[in-house]
């Protein structure tokens, strides 16, 4: 799916900001994908592989000699063969580490292009570096995750006031109780998010907890590049939704207004 280009958000002074079967000829048709095979044995295998390619779920072994088990005894590999896209299961059985199976096709797969889990660290080392067991929470970057001047943590936060214009498309990985957005289709590596932001939420139909929106009433946000975090480079544009910019909006203890409130009160239109 192509990622559309949209007008840039405007800063407070109106300037552009800096920063989508017969035995001989059996046919398996799945969502427009057709696989022609020449034997009944190959039919099951072809259908299984076609389904896997479309859904992102790794294919299970289509045929195995009777009496023989799977080719591997690795529990992680086994769960990858039987799991749902974006979980469960989760890496090492820990939701904090994100899902075992990630999508291979579609918009979310495109956004995930180039993403390397944990930046190449082992899961254990990643948690040791970024997770606080006593708080049951990740360690987040300071200044709401905005990058700093010169790349130094004690530099000036690179934050400006910007207006999201009518028709502008934004998205996020995370529930609607959060207060951050990104330009539609921003690569995952540029968002500097935790791996568990990709987890499916029980009872929520949004695959990989991905939500997309269109601005239907312009509003102001704090905007700027995301700091590097969680072994990712960041630098993608992020928008922080704050109640001080929106008359009558309820504020949480951090002064934020939730994405859900903006969608329910005529500022954002839900697209998925």
How does this model look, in words?
The chain has 272 residues and is of the alpha+beta class. Helices cover 16% and strands 18% of the residues. The protein is built from five helices and twelve strands. The chain has helices at 40-55, 75-82, 107-111, 123-130, 259-264, and strands at 10-11, 26-30, 33-37, 131-132, 137-138, 160-164, 169-173, 180-183, 210-215, 219-225, 237-240, 268-270. The radius of gyration is 22 Å and the shape is globular. The two termini are 14 Å apart. Mean pLDDT is 81; it is low at 1-5 and 13-75.
Number of strands: 12
| SS-derived structural category | alpha+beta
Strand order across the largest sheet = 1-6-10-11-8-7-9-12
Kindly provide the radius of gyration, computed on alpha-carbon positions and rounded to a whole number of angstroms.
22 Å
How much helix is in the residues? 10-25%
Name the beta content range: 15-25%
* Main sheet summary: 8 strands, antiparallel
Overall mean pLDDT stands at: 81
Spell out the helices and strands N to C. Answer: EEEHHHHEEEEEEEEHE
Through-space gap between termini: 14 Å
């Amino acid at each position: 799916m192509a990622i559309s280009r949209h007008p840039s958000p405007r800063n407070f002074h109106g300037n552009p900001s800096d920063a989508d079967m017969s035995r001989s000829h059996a046919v398996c048709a799945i969502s427009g994908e057709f696989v022609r095979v020449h034997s009944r044995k190959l039919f099951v295998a072809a259908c299984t592989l076609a389904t896997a390619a479309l859904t992102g779920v790794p294919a299970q072994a289509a045929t195995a000699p009777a009496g023989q088990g799977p080719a591997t005894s690795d529990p992680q590999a086994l769960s990858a063969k039987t799991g749902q896209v974006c979980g469960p299961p989760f890496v090492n059985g820990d939701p904090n580490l994100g899902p075992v199976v990630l999508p291979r096709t579609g918009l979310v797969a495109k956004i995930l292009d180039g993403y390397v889990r944990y930046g190449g660290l082992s899961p254990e080392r990643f948690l040791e570096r970024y997770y606080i067991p006593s708080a049951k929470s990740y360690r987040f970057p300071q200044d709401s995750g905005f990058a700093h001047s010169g790349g130094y943590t004690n530099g000036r936060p690179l934050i400006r006031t910007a207006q999201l214009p009518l028709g502008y498309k934004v998205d996020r990985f995370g529930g609607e109780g959060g207060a951050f957005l990104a330009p539609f289709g921003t690569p995952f590596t540029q968002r500097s998010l935790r791996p568990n932001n990709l987890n499916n939420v029980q009872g929520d139909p949004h695959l990989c907890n991905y939500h997309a929106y269109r601005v239907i009433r312009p509003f102001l946000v704090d905007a700027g590049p995301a700091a590097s975090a969680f072994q990712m480079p960041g630098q993608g544009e992020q928008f922080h939704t704050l109640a001080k910019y929106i008359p009558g909006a309820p504020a949480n203890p951090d002064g934020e207004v939730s994405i859900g409130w903006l969608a329910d009160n005529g500022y954002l239109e839900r697209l998925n």
